């Protein structure tokens, strides 16, 4: 890329911090930021972790990426990493259903990011929340459109022991409260279930969900629904809300809601060589119906969502390329997208 090209990019001259830089979504954010000319500081609890090695191979990383060892629960280390930054992308979060490991670290880590952002006078913080902070509400009717005004019911999350959704909800609420109190410009992205190519060498929870249907470990599929989105779209959504001065509030980031039966059907169409399940687990029960949701706020910023079949296809190809999914000995010809 020439200097002329780089000077015309949105990130020229800006330094931004990405917490948890080696993660699935964060890696894509770092990649796109570097492509746009930003200087990026990535944080990690362990700089020697092999899951961070891929970041150094990204285009522009040698010139404009630095990695800092940061514990989000240690405010001083966070302040050092953020000092001098124009903006922050706070993506780091525990992913677990253990309440002790999920709730307190998510809330306190997020509060510390907002405190450090306030002291560093950054222009904007973009926080990665989740659909888990939006849609867990048993009283919502089937015709209600899920949008940015919806919040998960904390008592329902507690009663069903869904500590991941509980933790994401209380962490986002804490972010809004802390940002308001300290005058920090906060924008939140709420992604649904994320699919697409892995940049990191390690497998992650969302791709395990698809992998089980290809390895034969899942003999049936659940009578359940899930909203999906491509990881590149999620990364781009973060950058769009950072770069758009008028962006505010929450942004629901999802492409479509599918029944698991639709998912296995798409997988079987493109990858017939794998033992993809054809039977539903809860046979005889009414088929779960997809909920309605709106992604209009992000579309209004110009985001064009990748179709879910492409996301599924890209996920499988990536699992093959990274060696997480073996090619079957009896090869049929995979369909092309």
TrEMBL record:
UniProtKB keywords: Disulfide bond, NADP, Oxidoreductase
SUPFAM superfamilies per record: NAD(P)-binding Rossmann-fold domains
Molecular function per GO: cinnamoyl-CoA reductase activity; oxidoreductase activity, acting on the CH-OH group of donors, NAD or NADP as acceptor
Documented EC number(s): 1.2.1.44
Pfam families according to UniProt: Epimerase
CDD domains, alphabetized: FR_SDR_e
GO biological process: lignin biosynthetic process
All copies of domain NAD-dependent epimerase/dehydratase, residue ranges: 16-248
Reactions it catalyzes: (E)-sinapaldehyde + NADP(+) + CoA = (E)-sinapoyl-CoA + NADPH + H(+); (E)-cinnamaldehyde + NADP(+) + CoA = (E)-cinnamoyl-CoA + NADPH + H(+); (E)-caffeyl aldehyde + NADP(+) + CoA = (E)-caffeoyl-CoA + NADPH + H(+); (E)-coniferaldehyde + NADP(+) + CoA = (E)-feruloyl-CoA + NADPH + H(+)
Pathways involved: Aromatic compound metabolism; phenylpropanoid biosynthesis
Family per record: Belongs to the NAD(P)-dependent epimerase/dehydratase family. Dihydroflavonol-4-reductase subfamily.
Protein name (Swiss-Prot/TrEMBL): cinnamoyl-CoA reductase
Organism: Rosa chinensis
């Amino acid at each position: 890329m020439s200097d002329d090209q780089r000077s015309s990019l949105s990130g020229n001259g800006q330094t931004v911090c990405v917490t948890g830089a080696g993660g699935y979504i964060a890696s894509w954010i770092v990649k796109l930021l570097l492509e746009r000319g930003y200087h990026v500081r990535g944080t990690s609890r362990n700089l020697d972790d092999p899951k961070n090695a891929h970041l150094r191979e990204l285009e522009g990383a040698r010139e404009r990426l630095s990695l800092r060892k940061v514990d989000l629960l240690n405010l001083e280390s966070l302040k050092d990493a953020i000092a001098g930054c124009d903006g922050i992308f706070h993506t780091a979060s525990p992913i677990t259903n253990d309440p002790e490991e999920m709730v307190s670290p998510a809330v306190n880590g997020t509060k510390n990011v907002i405190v450090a952002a306030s002291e560093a006078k950054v222009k904007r913080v973009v926080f990665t929340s989740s659909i888990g902070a939006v849609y867990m509400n048993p009283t919502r009717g089937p015709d209600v459109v899920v949008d940015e005004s919806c919040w998960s019911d904390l008592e329902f999350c507690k009663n069903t022991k869904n500590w991941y959704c509980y933790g994401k909800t209380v962490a986002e609420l804490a972010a809004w409260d802390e940002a308001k109190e300290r005058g920090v410009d906060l924008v939140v992205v709420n992604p649904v279930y994320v699919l697409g190519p892995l940049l990191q060498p390690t497998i992650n929870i969302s791709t395990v969900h698809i992998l089980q249907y290809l390895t034969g470990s899942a003999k049936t599929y659940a009578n359940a629904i899930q909203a999906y989105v491509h990881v590149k779209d999620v990364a781009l959504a973060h950058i769009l809300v950072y770069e758009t001065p008028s962006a505010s509030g929450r942004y629901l980031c999802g492409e479509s809601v599918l029944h698991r039966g639709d998912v296995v059907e798409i997988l079987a169409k493109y990858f017939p060589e794998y033992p993809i399940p054809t039977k539903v687990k809860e046979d005889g029960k009414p088929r779960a119906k997809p909920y309605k949701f709106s992604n209009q706020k992000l579309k209004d910023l110009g985001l064009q969502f990748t179709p879910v079949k492409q996301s599924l296809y890209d996920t499988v190809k990536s699992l093959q390329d990274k060696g997480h999914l073996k090619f079957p000995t009896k090869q049929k010809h995979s369909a092309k997208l």
